[in-house]
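Is this the right way to post C-alpha cells for a design question? Let me know if I should format differently. Anyway, here goes:
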C-alpha cells in the first residue's frame, strides 16, 4: 500500500485579499500620471508630491489661531491641499460630500477618529477616504504636523457633524 499524503487544497486569493489594504500592495499602486483618473493614480500623485519636499516645504506656515491650508495644485477633476496642524488643532467631525480623498501625513503625527476608533498616522501614512466618510483629524502631539489632501472631484463641500468622536456610535455612517 502506497502512503502518499494528500495535498491540501490550494486557496487562490488576490493580492488585495492577502494584504487587506490597497495601500499595502505596492505593485498595484501606479505612478502619478499627468491626469490621474483612478484611486491608485491619486495615491501615486500624493506619494510623488510627498516625495518632492522642495515643492511644498517652503510654503508651510503654522497658525495658532486656526488650521492653515494652501491649495497646492488643481487638475482636471481634482485638487491638492497642503495643511499644517499645531498641537491640539483638529478638523472637527466632517465628511467631504461627494468627493473621495487621499490623506497623506508629510511631517509629524495626526490622529484620525473614525467609525473604527482612533488611528495614529505618522509621516508617510496614507488613508483613502470614500465619499460621505465621516471622520475627525487631530494633532494630539506636542509637535507640529503637515498633511497633504487630494480630493477627486475637487472639494465643493465639507459638511460638519455635531456628534463627538469620543462616542463611536455617533460615527456609524
Amino acid at each position: 500500500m502506497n502512503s502518499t499524503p494528500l495535498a491540501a487544497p490550494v486557496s487562490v486569493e488576490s493580492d488585495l485579499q492577502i494584504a487587506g489594504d490597497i495601500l499595502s500592495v505596492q505593485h498595484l499602486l501606479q505612478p502619478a500620471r499627468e491626469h490621474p483618473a483612478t484611486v491608485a493614480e491619486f495615491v501615486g500623485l500624493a506619494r510623488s508630491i510627498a516625495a518632492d519636499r522642495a515643492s511644498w516645504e517652503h510654503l508651510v506656515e503654522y497658525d495658532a489661531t486656526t488650521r492653515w491650508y494652501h491649495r497646492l495644485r488643481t487638475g482636471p477633476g481634482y485638487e491638492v491641499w497642503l495643511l499644517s496642524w499645531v498641537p491640539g488643532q483638529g478638523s472637527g467631525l466632517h465628511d467631504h460630500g461627494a468627493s473621495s480623498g487621499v490623506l497623506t501625513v508629510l511631517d509629524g503625527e495626526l490622529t484620525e477618529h473614525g467609525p473604527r476608533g482612533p488611528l495614529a498616522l505618522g509621516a508617510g501614512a496614507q488613508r483613502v477616504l470614500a465619499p460621505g466618510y465621516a471622520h475627525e483629524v487631530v494633532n494630539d502631539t506636542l509637535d507640529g504636523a503637515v498633511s497633504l489632501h487630494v480630493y477627486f472631484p475637487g472639494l465643493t463641500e465639507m459638511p460638519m457633524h455635531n456628534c463627538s468622536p469620543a462616542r463611536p456610535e455617533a460615527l456609524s455612517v
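Format looks fine. Someone answered above. Worth noting: The CA atoms of residues 103 and 127 lie 5 Å apart. DSSP finds two helices and eight strands in the chain.
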